[in-house]
Design goal:
Helix content: over 70%
Strand order of the largest sheet: 1-2
Number of strands: 4
Shape: globular
Radius of gyration: 20 Å
Strand content: under 5%
Order of helices and strands: HEEHHHEEHHHHHHHHH
Mean pLDDT: 84
Largest sheet: 2 strands, antiparallel
Distance between the termini: 65 Å
Structural class: mainly alpha
Low-confidence stretches: none
Length: 360
């Protein structure tokens, strides 16, 4: 795979520009959030912070993304990309309103569907499954479900400082690598996807320093739903568009952690007779905290899982199914052993702490 040096330079400049804008604008968004009342006030056990924190930080990620992309990729906007950008604007406006006024779940869900419809009506949809063409009606339905699901999946994992921003950056970064591999196959959609992803990655990187624990600003629904929406839409545009059988598995690996979390959350809530959108404290990150891990440790574990799944996706694209399956199997074995050892260590520390507290 030999890439055009000009393309690589353009991608690097896109990342740097997006990160610089996002980083520079975040303090301004922080002040604006305080003025308009977009504050996250801790009011239940799901919240990990104890003082009000400004949200709406996703606006900075969006500004870094859109400005850098228009500068370096504005001349190659297709109808599909127009649909993605229009849908993204709808999601951003929805997120800002939600961060300020806290909207009900059903209206938000309806607007997310509208944004997804805008994307698919501009031609950006999943047309093949495992190398087989899908009927148009099924293609539209599956594409809308995918976009709405990933939009909410990233929103669901936005529960710890730096978690959603970091996981999204890792997903965008590894998806960028996969897109560049497809560029070598003269896939024009992959070139556009690479610039999209570079801008998205840069926006996340510029925002993360403000969002690490202890966070001075949250991305809010403005950021988490935007990132989920973009990752879902770009995966359709650049990855599902290939006809290879393995192309369907790659996006699932790249977005593996959010997908697992939302599927587990929906099953858990429905089993309890609750709405799938009912908020609870059963997400992966909450469970890690309840096991005794600190916020930083829990976030680091999530980053590691996302990075390993991303590496598996890269191997699947570059080396084929066998190597990727072997790698995934090795991850599962090593991960299970490592998690067991770490959990046992933390469990012993917690028991010792309880005994010491009881004696005192």
């Amino acid at each position: 795979m030999v890439l055009d040096p000009q393309l690589i330079l353009k991608i690097v400049l896109t990342i740097v520009t997006s990160a610089a804008i996002s980083c520079a604008v975040t303090p301004l968004i922080k002040m604006l959030a305080r003025k308009v009342g977009a504050m996250d006030i801790p009011k239940d056990e799901r919240r990990m912070h104890h003082t009000p924190i400004p949200r709406m930080g996703g606006s900075a990620i969006f500004l870094g993304f859109i400005v850098s992309f228009l500068i370096f990729g504005g001349k190659m906007i297709t109808s599909e990309m127009q649909g993605i950008l229009l849908g993204a604007v709808i999601i951003i406006v929805l997120g800002i309103l939600d961060d300020i006024m806290t909207l009900k779940a059903l209206p938000k869900f309806a607007v997310q569907i509208i944004a997804a419809v805008v994307v698919v009506c501009h031609g950006c949809r999943i047309e093949h499954f495992m190398g087989l063409a899908m009927p148009s009606w099924l293609s539209y339905a599956v594409s809308i479900i995918w976009i709405v699901m990933i939009t909410n999946a990233v929103n669901f994992i936005d529960g710890l400082d730096g978690l959603a921003a970091g996981v999204s950056a890792i997903s965008a970064g590894t998806m960028l690598v996969v897109a560049l591999m497809l560029v070598g196959e003269n896939n024009l959609a992959a070139i556009a996807s690479a610039l999209f992803l570079a801008a998205l990655f840069g926006g996340c990187v510029g925002f993360i320093p403000y969002n690490f624990n202890p966070a001075s600003i949250f991305m809010g629904d403005t950021g988490s739903t935007f990132l989920g929406f973009m990752l879902a839409s770009i995966s359709i545009f650049g990855l599902f568009k290939t006809y290879a059988i393995i192309s369907f598995a790659v996006p699932f690996l790249l977005l593996g952690l959010p997908i697992f979390d939302i599927c587990f959350a929906v099953i858990r809530r429905v089993a309890k007779g609750q709405s799938p959108m009912h908020a609870d404290r059963g997400h992966v990150h909450h469970r890690l905290i309840d096991m005794g891990f600190s916020q930083k440790q829990a976030v680091a574990i999530a980053y590691l899982i996302s990075a390993l799944l991303g590496l598996a996706a890269v191997l699947l694209t570059d080396s084929g199914e066998v190597q990727a399956l072997i790698f995934l199997a090795a991850i599962l074995v090593v991960g299970a052993i490592g998690f067991k050892l770490i959990f046992s260590h933390h469990h012993k520390k917690m028991e010792a702490s309880k005994e010491e507290h009881h004696e005192n």
